[in-house]
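Q: How would the structure tokens look for this protein?
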Amino acid sequence: MIDYPAHLEMMWQKAIAPREPNAPTVISTFAGGGGSSTGYMMAGFRELLAVEWDDNAVQTLRLNYPHLDIYHGDIAKLSVEEVLRRTGLQVGQLDVFDGSPPCQGFSTAGKRDFDDDRNQLFREYVRLLRGLQPKVFVMENVSGMVKGKMKLIFADILRELKASGYKVSARLLNAMYFHVPQSRERMIFIGVREDLGIEPSHPKAESRPIAVRAALQMAPHSEVRPISNRAAMMWEKIPAGKNGTTASGPNKDFSLFKLSPDSVCPTIRKGQTAGNGIMHWSEKRYLSTSENSRIGSFSDKYKWFGDSTDVVQRIGNSVPPLFMEAIARHIRTQILDGLTL
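A: Here is the predicted structure in token form.
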């Protein structure tokens, strides 16, 4: 078993290290607070542009990557021509085009509305993909898109991506098998441009699940979200490693979860408030900012803009950096390196 805090620090140092002159390039859309960006940088990529509209997420990106070019605005208003102008690229030169379109319409935690407008934002991703024609693309989304009636949208997405001139593979991967102490299952689409003659593939599991106790050892003290009286009362009744539906007594609450120190953390969700969320196993409180960062596989040195609620939203929306690092490293060694031989 790895020393998780030491491993996380080592990977952060890779993220902030100078880039090699021939480093592969990436553009990240729907970049959020930097989960994907950090993962690519850990894998040695040079990020040319990040695209994000949320003010807090952009401020977080700027705190950590002050020299990164960020398009702060609506992706629907970003033209292919502007991307090429800002990056100095020509069509077909970009190594990887990355994106995690908002997924509330697909998520098993949401209402799963087939007609949710947010399900259509992937079309903006496809528009830029077709204009830029990168060698490889990566698109991440929730596992809910292959469940029930959402399979129709999944088929639509797959059809659009293939019609863009790419061989495409889509797999469900769980971050907990890639050094992330969080069970977070996501659909990962990887596409390789057809003319390159390489089949898309996904990384294989690299680690066993990391228990919360090991992940949080020596975590620095930091801000903790206030806990409601009701949640504090429920904490007494919920067994470690269970959610509030297992609480003793008449009150049940799916939105509360008490960690077990010897198990992996469940998925951190963005919609945590004073009345719900993930709670510590031995202290009557929610996880602190630094603890959430650790479980999200962000370094202790990663800077967050805003309060503890903002941080939970950023981490809940993010692709864990160590998860993306494994995907990016696989693409670099198994696909891109094959193009230079």
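The beta strands are 25-29, 46-52, 70-72, 96-99, 136-142, 166-174, 185-193, 242-244, 253-258, 277-279.

The radius of gyration is 20 Å.

Upvote if useful.
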